[in-house]
Design goal:
By secondary structure, the chain is an alpha+beta fold. It has two domains: 150 residues, no CATH class; 224 residues, 2,3-Dihydroxybiphenyl 1,2-Dioxygenase, domain 1. 18% of the residues lie in helices and 37% in strands. The chain contains seven helices and 24 strands. The strands form three sheets. Strands 1, 2, 11, 12, 21, 22, 23 and 24 form an eight-stranded mixed beta sheet that branches. A hairpin with a 2-residue loop joins β19 and β20.
Length: 403
């Protein structure tokens, strides 16, 4: 998985008429991204420990471990040496110890690594003063570099010590997206279930991601569920109406079914949205809205208890750094707080009096943060991912990209 390259963090929305959809769709990105735990290679690093018997009072353990995810590098990260190699290879992010490197020395370090590896293709793609980004054709070649670190053969590469090797991706993720976890081998099935209707309006849909785990399916009777509400897709009118109609046709057949709000709520809601639920898979509720000025996405979370609305709003204000647009309808029995995240995407908290959201397992909201202080007190999953819960117990993952 060499990386997902997009110029727009909101993905690719198709702008021509429906007949041109197939030509416009970027099938190279598979429309919906999927990450498989089985495809994530180990992280190799030097773990510093207190060691009073050494002059420096410290020593290193050489460790390999399975990371939570790929290390996220912004698509514009680093100084380029060569273009990103598209394909099924592995990007390796190398961290150097306490020294600043320049392009000349970065090239010399890469040359020495190639000599040590003796055969596998190893290409220097980018660098910054503390890191190198290398491309390997296969996970086996990447593992060969990891073995060199564990065997103490990377302590002096042209005078530079390599302290960590991590699998990485170049990406430009949105500020918020929904991650759907699926046990192996159901991740691909989940991805293929979403593609038929998403590909009608998007060539690369970044607001939903599938994560295939190596764990067995969850037991609904013992695992706490997560009530994520729905992704609503805004489809532009006129020539774009045909896309909405085609998407609704896809979702009008089993195992999808139309889901309706209670009549007393539906008559007060001032938008025409068709909502669909998958009867066999653990997916969010999906909605398709027509007749809006431009295509986009609204990620909506239904608040279970209206008494929690203010605390939920404050929680997501702190995470997003955005002041929401508030709206109350029907004497306060309907409440919205909408956080504008980008020209194409928004996140909305919703409260409908008397409506209890369906619980969904293994679905989490991911938010990109610029200030890692927002992650204080959260469980650290990796170098750039942290997990916490909102006031109603929903799982929220915070992440950063290296820029």
């Amino acid at each position: 998985m060499a990386g997902l390259r997009m110029e727009d963090c909101d993905g690719i929305f198709l702008e021509n008429d429906l007949s041109a959809a197939r030509e416009e769709t970027d099938f190279g990105t598979a429309v919906v991204n999927i990450t498989r735990d089985a495809d994530i290679p180990p992280r190799y690093f030097l773990h510093k420990i207190f060691s009073p018997m050494t002059p420096s009072m410290s020593s290193y353990h050489r460790v390999s471990e399975k990371p939570h995810n790929f290390r996220l590098l912004h698509k514009d990260w680093g100084k380029r040496v060569s273009d990103v190699v598209e394909g099924t290879g592995i990007l390796a992010l190398l961290t150097l110890e306490s020294q600043s490197i320049d392009e000349h020395h970065a090239g010399r370090v890469a040359k020495q690594l190639k000599s040590l590896l003796r055969g596998p293709r190893c290409e220097l793609l980018r660098w910054d003063p503390e890191h190198l980004l290398l491309y390997f054709d296969s996970a086996e070649d990447y593992a060969g570099l990891g073995k060199l670190l564990l065997d103490e053969k990377l302590d002096s590469c042209e005078g530079f010590r390599i302290t960590a090797i991590e699998p990485a991706v170049l990406t430009n993720p949105p500020r918020c997206y929904v991650e759907i976890k699926a046990p192996n081998p159901q991740g691909t099935l989940t991805q293929r279930t979403l593609i038929p209707f998403i590909s009608l309006f998007s060539g690369a849909f970044t607001h939903v991601s599938v994560h295939e785990t190596e764990l067995p399916p969850s037991n609904p009777g013992t695992i706490q569920s997560i009530p994520i509400n729905w992704c609503r897709t805004h489809v532009r009118p006129a020539t774009h109406e045909s896309r909405a109609v085609a998407a609704m046709e896809v979702m009008s057949s089993k195992p999808w079914r139309l889901e309706k709000l209670p009549e007393e709520i539906a008559k007060e809601v001032d938008f025409d949205t068709n909502l669909y639920v998958h009867s066999e898979m653990n997916l969010p509720l999906w909605g398709i809205l027509t007749g809006v000025p431009m295509s986009g996405v609204r990620l909506m979370l239904l608040v279970k208890d209206a008494a929690n609305f203010e605390s939920m709003e404050q929680f997501y204000c702190n995470i997003t750094g955005v002041a929401p647009l508030r709206q109350k309808l029907c004497n306060g029995s309907i409440r919205y707080s909408t956080f504008s995240l980008s020209p194409r995407a928004e996140f909305t908290l919703v409260s409908y009096a008397g409506v209890i959201p369906e619980t969904k397992e293994d679905i989490a909201l991911h938010f990109q943060i610029r200030n890692t202080n927002k992650a204080i007190g959260a469980q650290k999953l990796s170098e750039d991912h942290w997990q916490l819960r909102d006031p109603e117990g929903n799982v929220v993952v915070l992440f950063t990209t290296m820029k």
